[in-house]
Amino acid sequence: MAANYFKPIWRFLIKDRAFSLLNMMGLALGICASLFILLWVQDEQRVDHFHSQGDRLFQVYSRNFYEGSVEASFATQGLLAQELKTNVPEIALASGFEYIAAPGTKSNLEAVGKTGKMLGFFAGSDFLSMFTYPLLLGDKASALSSPEGVAISHMMATYFFGSPESAMGQTVSLEGKEDLRVTAVFEDLPSYSSQQFDFLRSWAPFMTQNAWASTWRNASPATFILLKPDSDPESVEQKIKDFLYQYIDPQAGVRQELALQAYPSRYLNGAFKNGYPNGGRIAYVRLFTVLAIFILAIACINFMNLATAGAVKRAKEVGLLKTIGASRVSLAFRYLLEALVLTGAAVVVSLVLLFMLLPLFQELTSKQLSVPITTARFWLGLSGIWLAVGLASGSYPALYLSSLNPLRALKAKTAKGGAFFRKGLVVFQFSLSIILIAAMLVFQRQMDFIQHTTIGYDRDNLLYIPIEGNLITNYEAFKAQASAVPGVLSVSKMRNSPTYIEHHTWGVSWPSKPPGTTLSFTDAVVGYDFVSTMRLRLKEGRDFSRAFGADTAAFLINETAARAIGLQQPLGQSLGWDQRQGQVIGVLEDFHFNSMHHTIEPLIVRLDENWGWGTILVRIAPGQTAPALKGLEQVNKTLNPAIPFTYQFSDWEFSKLYHSEQLVSRLASCFAVLALIVSCLGLFGLATFTAAQRVKEIGVRKVLGASVMSVVYLLSAGFIRLVLLAILIASPIAWWAMNSWLEDFAYRIAIEWWMFIIAGLVAAVIALLTISGQAIRAAVANPVESLRDE
């Protein structure tokens, strides 16, 4: 019985090899692209979902209302974790969490004669009991209880001591200043953990080394809490909403609230809008999920188009089968089975392509993705895709072919409805392709705008060197020797890096400040020559200078700060910050010290050449990078011999701010091209069938004197009209989608009309090239051959 179905299917596929191969490759490319996207989406969705107590794990964030606006961030007070645990009965465990070295840099460690750079954090004693980072050795409840205790990763234990067992109880020197004792060894963190670190040390040293963290007016660390079983998160959130007012006095016009975000959702929903978690990487997950559906839809449409277009060739077959008694149900089942067989072959080919191209995709996405072939879920999902694609792409051709009238079918006449449906599918698939091309243009234009717009300082030839080891106390000597290196123009320092200044303060005061007014300032601590090294522009005033001893109590502010304070003549105005009282000596033109997702905030800058950590800034002359780096490495070897010389270029660090956007741009470009290729495969097949269907008409026209160009126009004009209609449909949809994406940027390009014209022209030109080959071939054919009746 089964042979009665499969033998005719096999004969048809072998007989029309070109049609079968074209259809299968279109489906295979579409399925393969969708599988790649779904692998990436699955990897994004699994981040931070491995913690066994994840349903009770939350991160505290602050929400601040002032002057008619609201802002939110994960920066909280250093004292908050312990106070929440003590005062809120529903909270079982709590921990602060903060970098040990400056954000983006690693700490220098030494043990048993070996040195290495490792990423570390301060964490509370409850931390390892809250998160599922399995301990290989040690007790998670006490590992971080003593100030000198340190928990290290399996990798770090192996690197320094050969094995986790040998590491326990050993001493590790941190930055050559502190000796830490290994109290625990944890398993290396998986790639799907948003937290990545090599070692943890206790919270007490953080509070001791950072006096500002002991006040309730300063915020920087993260705070995590674990609720007791059966606790209601909404109830706890209401309890902690006004928690800070137990320690600070309310101020008129200002409100500070605490709130909770479920930790497993933080990675994908890490952005804030109007003071609440809203958006983030989840937007890209949704975007690429839709993209996978788009590409699968385009591939299915190709199948439908090619199958219904081929109905002319199979019309007599249908007529004969119906004449000898075949029912419509049996015919529909036969052609549907044919679609499933072809789809099954496409799935097999797509898997081969998936494994072949996986290394390239891993490099493109910077992810270690793997195909979960050992899990039943993967094969069930793949079977679902096979059935869904097979049924979706084969249902209409099966119903269409089985519905043909036997008499008309034997005369090779088919209904016009099929042609109309095919045209609609062509418009739909090219609309999707044009949307993707337009999106690619907008992505690339925005990235180009970010990379090349004036950000207020010169990031070319600007070097970042972490302040570590002996440089903490020998900065002045380093600056003097580095300034003498050929190719080095100037040297300065700052607490963070210019790319990302993360510290904020509410504690800035000025004489005309209205009672009850609170204004959040981004704050920076810098060294001499900061303005010249950064090549910032002063709107008025001057940089910090050794010629003015009082500059240790002076301030620089940016234009936004001057406007926010309401100072018409800011120079000489008195400001107070961090128990310092001084005058404004300069106003900086606004510059970007964060990503362009955020507006420029009020900035206040003070001088402190003795600040113990952060970044050394080195300005290098153009074309002198190699000799300057060699000289700086020698200076570092002389003054800081125990620490390897490391550095980053400013433009590298700037690019990291837009890693997600750059990834989206690259993926959108690749998949837009792929979608267009798949669409054109279908268009090529349709053009082939159209030319075959009108072969006698073309022969008659040529006999009557029609030129090759007129025949080409005859065959091409209809398709080009469909593409033009697709442009009209796709353009407003693409504009809406891209405008929504650009809303996440405080500084953005304007969407121009020509972007959609280019997207449409690209699609039209490629479609025309696809069609014209078949059209020319039909037009130059010998009319004698085409008119000869078999």
TrEMBL record:
The UniProt keywords, alphabetically, are:
Cell membrane, Membrane, Transmembrane, Transmembrane helix
Q: Where is the MacB-like periplasmic core domain?
A: 20-242, 434-630
This protein's source sits in the domain of life called Bacteria
Database matches in Pfam families? FtsX (PF02687), MacB_PCD (PF12704)
Task: Tell me where in or outside the cell this protein is found.
Answer: Cell membrane
Extract one GO molecular function annotation from the record.
transmembrane transporter activity
Q: What's this protein's name?
A: ABC-type antimicrobial peptide transport system, permease component
Please give the organism: Parapedobacter koreensis
